């Protein structure tokens, strides 16, 4: 069962997109929160600290979320899981890639779908406000996908971003002449 999913089409092949979504700098710049700090421990294990606030109808919540994310690359998706979170008991997500190539122009399009399959919260108040909280998260991840699009469409920004992610396999990056 999927808690929620958001989608965005990118004009890049999935191998290029996988490299960007495995780069902590892309996540740090793309996340729509007031403060995002990510410390990579390994290529696929990152320590996070996010600070922001949420305005529910009846509640204003200033929060700091600390957790470790683990990203694992598969053929057509990346799995994303959290551990050691101060707010989330269980998180299971994925970033799925569905690639198509135009037979005439040879250019790629790839549908990127960010899915959250499991989300269990620690805070009893947030559990009572689960549906509005999920609505806020869904909007945040939609903004994230849009922000990532802007990042990788800008030549200067995308080059700079990749410099900090030393593990990126540059041979997998294809900009299709852009």
Structure description:
The chain has 178 residues and is an alpha+beta fold. It has one domain: 2-Layer Sandwich (Alpha-D-Glucose-1,6-Bisphosphate, Chain A, domain 4). It has helices spanning 14-21, 24-30, 124-128, 130-153, 155-164, and strands at 4-10, 35-42, 45-55, 60-73, 77-83, 88-101, 108-121. Strand 3 (45-55) and strand 4 (60-73) form a beta hairpin. The mean pLDDT is 90.
Write a concise keyword list for the protein shown above.
about 180 residues; alpha+beta; Alpha-D-Glucose-1,6-Bisphosphate, Chain A, domain 4; 7-stranded antiparallel β-sheet; globular
- Name the helix and strand elements from N-terminus to C-terminus, one letter apiece: EHHEEEEEEHHH
Distance between the termini: 38 Å
User: Globular, elongated, flat, extended or rod-shaped: what is the shape?
Assistant: globular
Content of β-strand: 35-45%
- Strand order in the largest sheet: 1-7-6-5-4-3-2
Q: Roughly what is the average pLDDT, rounded to an integer?
A: 90
Q: Can you tell me the number of structural domains?
A: 1
Please report the total strand number as a whole number.
7
Per CATH, the class reads: Alpha Beta
- In the predicted model, the low-confidence regions spanning at least 5 consecutive residues are none
Class inferred from helices and paired strands? alpha+beta
Write a concise synopsis of the structure shown.
By secondary structure, this protein is an alpha+beta fold.
């Amino acid at each position: 069962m999927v808690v929620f999913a958001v989608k965005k089409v990118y004009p890049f092949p999935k191998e290029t997109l996988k490299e960007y979504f495995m780069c902590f700098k892309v996540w740090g710049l793309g996340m729509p929160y007031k403060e995002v700090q990510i410390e990579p421990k390994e290529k696929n294990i990152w320590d996070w600290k996010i600070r922001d606030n949420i305005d529910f109808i009846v509640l204003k919540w200033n929060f700091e979320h600390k957790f470790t994310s683990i990203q694992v690359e598969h053929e057509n998706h990346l799995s994303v899981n959290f551990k050691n979170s101060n707010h989330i008991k269980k998180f299971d997500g994925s970033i799925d890639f569905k690639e198509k190539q135009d037979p005439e122009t040879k250019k790629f399009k790839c549908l990127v779908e960010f899915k959250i399959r499991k989300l269990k919260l620690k805070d009893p108040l947030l559990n009572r406000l689960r549906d509005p909280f999920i609505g806020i998260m869904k909007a945040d991840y939609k903004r994230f996908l849009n922000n990532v699009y802007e990042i990788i469409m800008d030549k200067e920004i995308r080059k700079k971003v990749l410099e900090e992610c030393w593990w990126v396999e540059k041979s997998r990056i294809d900009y299709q002449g852009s």
